[in-house]
Amino acid sequence: APRVKLRLGANLGDRPITEGVDVYFECEISCNPPTRDVVWNKNGQEVHPDRKAGVIVSHRNLVLQMVRRSSAGNYTCTASNPLGTTTSNSVPLSIRYLPVCIGGGQTVAVAEGEDVRLTCRVDAQPDDDLHFIWYFNNTLDTVEVERHRIKVRQGHSFLDYTPRSARDYGTLSCWATNSVGMQADPCPPERVGNCVLVNLTVGTLEVGCTPGNDGGLPQRFVARVYASPTHTLLATLEEEEPRFHVEGLFPGQDYLITITAVNAKGASEPEEIDAIRLKVAEKRMGDVSAPPVSPLVGVFLGLVGGFVLLLLAGILLTRVRSNKCNCVRHRQRDTGVGGASSTTASKLCATGRGRATHASHDEENDEDDDEDGPDVVKTANETAQLLEGQKCPEIVSTRRPQSYTHSTVIGQGSSDSPQLTPNGTGGRALYRDSGSPHHLSRDESFV
């Protein structure tokens, strides 16, 4: 069977291997007959050639270009011939690299005067000589945190921090150093969180998230919209802030949205919003309720209603008085009384249209009334009859008229004709609906 021995390339010697250099292995084989093939393994898994990844296999040699942290492990080679198969010794490949962050940053909410412990976790090789530096940054300045406030344990750093004023709020960042050097690249951004649907309408939706720590580099946010359950990509959106407005969606369809934060170092883990369904508009309308009525509206309507009632009452009163005047004029025509009766009708209409006269004017009218005719006094029954169009009010004198004496005049026709002669004193004269004052008899005269 073959005799097999594995070793690192002679040019490497015992020097420590740092990330980014080229490494090669030599598999020394001694056998007869010669081997047919050589198999390379890393941690028990076969290594396959991959020039894009920098892995080159050439029978007895394995070349690793630009080794990375992931290249570290235990390597072996296996040779076989018709007499048997032999596996070489295991050669560990240890790669030293600069510290890198474990996970993303974090956002911590703390009140003034409240103590909080912040943790900085890094991956480094070697990790037994780590040193940490903390920096505080706000809108005014960036300062280094005092070393005595920093604690290191098992490759992690802890900082107990207490904000005392508004100026103590900002961003705290840590940088680690080992024998290889200081941490070169900031950490990848922290994944976004608290993603919620801000607005959901027919055909559109809007989603917003809380951004995570940017890892010290500018970040942007990418949203991808998928049709569920087929997981077909429908749209890709990119924004400076984690807020996205998606249009052109169909009601009744389920959607999946993934949101990722990206910076120059890499991308965060995606945040997913699943089972989004847009419903038809008719099913998404809320109950429509009438707006509350202000008390001022009721007051205004009451005032308008009162005004309308007063207006109708005024119109009705005007109609009643107009009918009264018409009745008086009609009586004048029926009785055939001239002079005083005509004047009385005119005064009655004037009185019915309005009484807003001055006292001096009333006194002048009183003198005229003594000469021209009587006023009108109507009872409740007469008013009702007036409204029904059945009877006009009677004319009753409220002042003392001239006195009358009864005498008989004998004319040529030897017939007695009764006459009323004014005396200057006397009683009341009543004019009824008989058509003429000549109907008065001796018993109806007053002396």
TrEMBL record:
Compositionally biased, Polar residues: which spans? 399-423
Q: Where is the composition biased (Acidic residues)?
A: 363-374
In what residue span(s) does the Fibronectin type-III domain sit?
188-281
Q: Keywords assigned by UniProt? A: Membrane, Repeat, Transmembrane, Transmembrane helix
SUPFAM superfamilies assigned: Fibronectin type III, Immunoglobulin
- Where is the region Disordered? 351-447
Please provide the Gene Ontology terms (biological process) for this protein.
anatomical structure morphogenesis; cell differentiation
Q: Which InterPro entries match?
A: FN3_dom, FN3_sf, Ig-like_dom, Ig-like_dom_sf, Ig-like_fold, Ig_I-set, Ig_sub, Ig_sub2
What Pfam family does this protein match (any one)? I-set
Domain Ig-like per the UniProt entry, residue ranges: 2-94, 99-179
Transmembrane region(s): 296-317
Specify the protein name: Contactin-5-like 2
